[in-house]
Amino acid sequence: MESIIHICFSQSAGGSLKHAVKKKKLFEGKKVIVFPDDISIGIIQNGINLSERLKWVDSINKEDERIRLEEIDYLKRAYKQFYKEISNIKDTDVIYLWYGECCSDICGMMYALELLKNKIENIYFINVSEKIYEGNSIIYTYRAVAEIITEKLKEFIKIRRKIEYKEYHDLINQWESLKDNNSILRIFKDGKVQAVSEDYFDINILKYTENEFRKCTRIVGSVMGYSEEKISDDYIFWRIGELTKSGMLEYKGKFGIMREMEVKITQKGIEYMSTDSEAISFWRSKETEKQFERDKINEAKNKGRMEERINIAKKLMYILDVEVIAEKTGLTVMQVKNLIN
C-alpha cells in the first residue's frame, strides 16, 4: 500500500506541515521530513558536506557563542535525522515536495531531487507560489511554505503535480552548475536560482542605514521586508558585520550580537552607495524626512523648555531680583522684566 511522504525545507514549514498532518489531520501523510539547512547561503561547491556547512555556521556566528553552539548542535542532529528518514523512504511511497519560489526552498528541493534520483516516478511538486490569491483589492502569492498558516495548507494539495522527466533533468543540471560555483550566495531571480557575489545585498543594507545609530535588528528587518529576493536574517547581519569591518558602517554596543549592536553609515559608506543612483536618491530622501522629524522634535522640546522656564520665573518674581531670576532660569534680564510688565 502506498503512503504519502511530505518533504519541506525549513523548520517553520516542517512545524506547520506536521501539525496539519498529525494533529489536525487536514490531509494524508505517513511522515513529514524536514531538510534543516538554508543552502542558499554558504559553500555548496562539490556538493553538500556537513563539515563545510558547520564551518559556515561557525564563521557567521563566531561572535555570538550561544547562537553558534545551538545552531551547530541542531544541524548535526537534524542532518543525521534527515538522511535516515530519506533512506527509509520505500519504493511504493508517494513523495510530495513542498516549496515556494524562494532560493532556500528551491535549493533544498533540488538537493532532495539529487538524493531521490531513484524515486522520480513517485515525486509530486507542490509549488505554493503557483497559487494566486485575490481579495480585498490585493493579489498575492506565497514566496515560501513557511509563510503559510497550518489551516491553509490543505488548499495546496489540489495543485500538486507529478514531476516531468525534462523538468527533473533541467533542475538537476541547474543544481550541478551551482555546485561547480564557489559562490557563498544564491538568489532566485528571473525564474531560476543564480549564484551571485557575496556583496549582492550590501547596497540595500546601506540604503536602509541612517546616519544616526540604530539597532541592527531594525536594519535587518527593513532589508528583508523590502527585498525582492527572500534572504535570511543571519546572512544580512553577517554582511552588516563585514561592512563595519570595511569602514562603511560604524557600530556601538556588542559587535556580532544582533540584539545588542547598533550601526550608522559612515562617509565611506555613503560614497560607496553613491555608485547606485537609485539607492543614494532613496537614502537622501529618507534622511531629509528624518531631519525634518528631528527638527520638529527639537522644536517641541525647546518650546517645552521655554514654557517651563517662564513658569519658574513667574513663581520667583516677587521673591528674587530680576537678575537672579534670569541667571537661574536661563532667560535674559529683559525677558524677565517683560514678564513683570
Structure description:
- This is DUF1835 domain-containing protein.
- It comes from Clostridium beijerinckii (Clostridium MP).
- This protein has 341 residues and is an alpha/beta fold.
- Helix content is 50%, strand content 15%.
- Strand 5 and strand 6 (138-140) form a beta hairpin.
- Helix 2 (50-60) packs antiparallel against helix 3 (65-87), helix 8 (216-226) crosses helix 9 and helix 12 (322-329) crosses helix 13.
- The longest helix has 40 residues, at 277-316.
- The protein is elongated and about 100 Å long.
- The protein starts with a strand and ends with a helix.
Bin the helical content: 40-55%
Q: Strand order across the biggest sheet?
A: 2-1-3-4-7
Indicate the low-confidence ranges by residue numbers. Answer: none
Arithmetic mean pLDDT: 91
| Tally of separate helices | 13
- The top-level CATH class of the largest domain is Alpha Beta
Q: Which fold does the CATH topology of the largest domain refer to?
A: Rossmann fold
Number of strands: 12
Organism: Clostridium beijerinckii
Protein name: DUF1835 domain-containing protein
Pfam families: DUF1835, DUF3658
Secondary structure elements and pairings:
Layout: E1 4-8, H1 11-23, E2 31-34, H2 50-60, H3 65-87, E3 94-99, H4 103-115, E4 123-127, E5 133-135, E6 138-140, H5 154-157, E7 161-162, H6 165-179, E8 185-189, E9 192-196, H7 202-207, E10 214-215, H8 216-226, H9 233-245, E11 249-253, E12 261-265, H10 267-273, H11 277-316, H12 322-329, H13 333-340
Parallel strand pairs: 1-2, 1-3, 3-4
Antiparallel strand pairs: 4-7, 5-6, 8-9, 10-12, 11-12
